[in-house]
Design brief:
Its cofactor is pyridoxal 5'-phosphate. Keywords: Aminotransferase, Pyridoxal phosphate, Transferase. This protein is 43% helix and 14% strand. Strand 3, helix 6 and strand 4 form a beta-alpha-beta unit. Bound molecules: glutamine.
């Protein structure tokens, strides 16, 4: 029997990020394959949150059952306390925070809450791979604004003209996957101004908020007039090295939050209760934790960037997040997909072809993305394996 997939789903590519990771593993096995493709840590999370997760499981009782759909009070209160401190204004755990299954569900819930079929959503290109399928799932159309290498700035006029009568939302990801760009205050001020003038909802994915090596992390929600219209998404995956726990959250004004909670209820009901309790312990970690976290990532970044440049790639140091878009024109005439394939076959090194972050694939043909949430030994092993390709 042949089944017909819906037109929406039929048009989706498989996740290239996961495919590259799995192909490399299949060819070389876990002992040899070096995974610079899928951005997840190969080291342990902070022990405090693992202990807290174990304690929550041991305590049992209601922790084995649904938490309140939009998040266990313990976690929402911890998020509120943390965010109020960072934003220097009260964030209300009762009416402004929703806990979801990772930032990925958060993005979909935010779009379902704000966007109608036929609307347009502005997306900066290159983009993290789920933003476009998410936009299509809600029946809207993405409208792209290019970020241009090497410094990944956008043209203010191109942004202005991307706002049309149909624009409902704009997705801003800072620090940015895949480029490492950290949106400047001036860039965010322009986005804020356009959103206010045109009545557009900004949805900001700030999952890499603690990974800013250069400059400052500015939340759009902290700019004047923006708290009452912005949906801010973050989560535990990157900050506490627990990408498999699937704990994310949204912070939005009460009216938007009420919508988000309904969508979330119908999408997933809720996320793992004991792990919510554990993430609350993470949010109570002292500043020293974040300082160490950042300095360890800086070391990984510097090792990878210097190593790639020494091997003939063209890479500038990312200001944030844990990815680099590496130019390989000096190394090969191949396109990005063939080159990434060659890296897997000859070096056992998985990367992501640049074009998979673009709606206009030709723009990514001479880049591959490396992610670096990896132990220094892993990065060194990967660089050694790449030594032969020049
Ligand atoms: N955010 C991670 C990345 O960009 C993981 C993505 C995924 O698993 N599809 O690599």
């Amino acid at each position: 029997m042949s089944v017909r997939l819906s037109g929406k789903v039929d048009g989706f590519p498989d996740s290239v990020i996961r495919n590259m990771t799995m192909r490399n593993l299949r060819l070389h096995g876990p002992a040899r394959a070096v995974n610079f493709a899928q951005g997840f840590p190969d080291f342990e999370p902070p022990p405090e949150i693992v202990v807290a997760a174990q304690a929550a499981l041991d305590r049992g009782g209601d922790y084995h059952q649904y938490a309140i759909t939009w998040g266990a009070p313990t976690l929402r209160e911890a998020i509120a306390a943390y965010q109020s401190r960072v934003w220097d204004r009260p964030v209300d755990a009762e009416n402004e925070i929703s806990v979801v299954c990772g930032a990925t569900e958060g993005m979909l819930a935010a779009l379902f809450t704000t966007v109608e079929p036929g609307d347009e959503v502005i997306v900066f290109e290159p983009f993290y791979e789920c933003y476009v399928p998410d936009t299509v799932l809600v029946g809207a159309r993405p409208r792209f604004v290019p970020l241009r290498s090497p410094d990944w700035r956008f043209d203010p006029d191109e942004l202005r003209s991307a706002f049309t009568a149909r624009t409902k939302a704009i997705i801003v990801n800072t620090p940015h996957n895949p480029t490492g760009k950290v949106f400047s205050r001036a860039e965010l001020q322009l986005i804020a101004k356009l959103c206010q003038e045109r009545g557009v909802t900004p949805i900001t994915d700030e999952i890499y908020e603690h990974l800013v090596y250069e400059g400052e992390h500015v939340s759009l929600a902290t700019l004047p007039g923006m708290a009452e219209r912005t949906i801010t998404i973050s989560g535990a995956s990157k900050t506490y090295s627990v990408t498999g726990w699937r704990i994310g959250w949204l912070i939005a004004p009460p009216q938007l939050t009420a919508g988000i909670r309904k969508v979330h209820d119908y999408l997933t009901v809720g996320t793992a209760h004991p792990l919510q309790i554990a993430v609350a312990a993470g949010l109570r970690l002292p500043d020293a934790f974040y300082e160490r976290y950042l300095s360890e990532y800086r070391e990984r970044r510097d090792l990878l960037v210097a190593g790639l440049n020494a091997r003939g790639f063209t890479v500038s140091s990312p200001a944030g997040a844990y990815y680099v878009m590496a130019g390989f024109s000096r190394l090969s005439q191949l396109d990005d997909e063939a080159f990434a394939e060659q890296l897997i076959e000859t070096a056992g090194v998985a990367t992501v072809p640049g074009s998979s972050f673009y709606a206009h694939p030709e723009l990514g043909r001479k880049h591959v993305r490396f992610s670096f949430p990896k132990r220094l030994e892993t990065i060194e092993r990967g660089l050694e394996a790449l030594a032969g390709i020049a």
